TrEMBL record:
Coiled coil: none annotated. The lineage of its organism: Bacteria, Pseudomonadati, Pseudomonadota, Alphaproteobacteria, Rhodobacterales. Residues 63-147 form the Methyltransferase small domain. This is Magnesium protoporphyrin IX methyltransferase. Residues 1-11 have a biased composition (Polar residues). It comes from Roseobacter litoralis (strain ATCC 49566 / DSM 6996 / JCM 21268 / NBRC 15278 / OCh 149). Keywords: Methyltransferase, Plasmid, S-adenosyl-L-methionine, Transferase. The keyword Transferase applies. NCBIfam families: BchM-ChlM. Its EC number is 2.1.1.11. Residues 1-23 are annotated as: Disordered. GO terms for molecular function: magnesium protoporphyrin IX methyltransferase activity. GO terms for biological process: chlorophyll biosynthetic process; methylation. The gene is bchM.
Amino acid sequence: MRDEVTLSNGAPTAGRDASRPGYSATLGRVETYFDKTATRTWERLTSDAPVSKIRQTVRQGRDRMRDLMLSRLPADLTGHRVLDAGCGAGQMTIELAARGAEVLATDISPSLVQIAEARLPEALRKQVTFTSGDMLCHTLGQFDHVIAMDSLIYYDANDIGRALAALETRTGGSIVFTVAPRTKALMAMWYAGKLFPRSDRSPVMIPHDAGKLAQAASTQGVLGQVKPIERVTSGFYISQLMELRA
């Protein structure tokens, strides 16, 4: 059941620092998991194909969260450049492009990027650029908005703060992202997951308290306000919507 709980679209790769083996090790597990182990599971979950009841709750939760994240952006994104940070199989990418945005869709998994590109309707192709790798890379340019859905759930508060600080310098508007909230139910699943051998489960997400996360972001150089927006709970999908605004 850990796979259903911890599915994610990608992860930042900036700050690949040999002096921080924990971060590097986590990054390696996330990259391997989503590009090798979980690609087909993720492809099926993000399609209309029949899935188990557990995965159906995850699908419904993700649909709800995606709608909430999009509601934080203007309805008309014509002329706006948006980073879909951790695009996964491309569901958010399609929605952003349909609103008129120029989308840079990136993911740590080249396999998922290929799926996203194949799914993109022909009519929207001129608006979307796909790439795989580091969503924090400065060569990706400037953005009006950033959306990072389930892309940061495996990282501690300081790493998330550093990622937000890096994105903030290149984003004119809002940064909308999700984290795993520190709830009793999620913490119970988190501790239970630690009982299983690492080879049998996906990388472990890190639950966060929204207030402490905001403090950590400020410590890491974030200038804007990081605040919680809304929480989505749907079976095994539990996620907290957060927003960074200037």
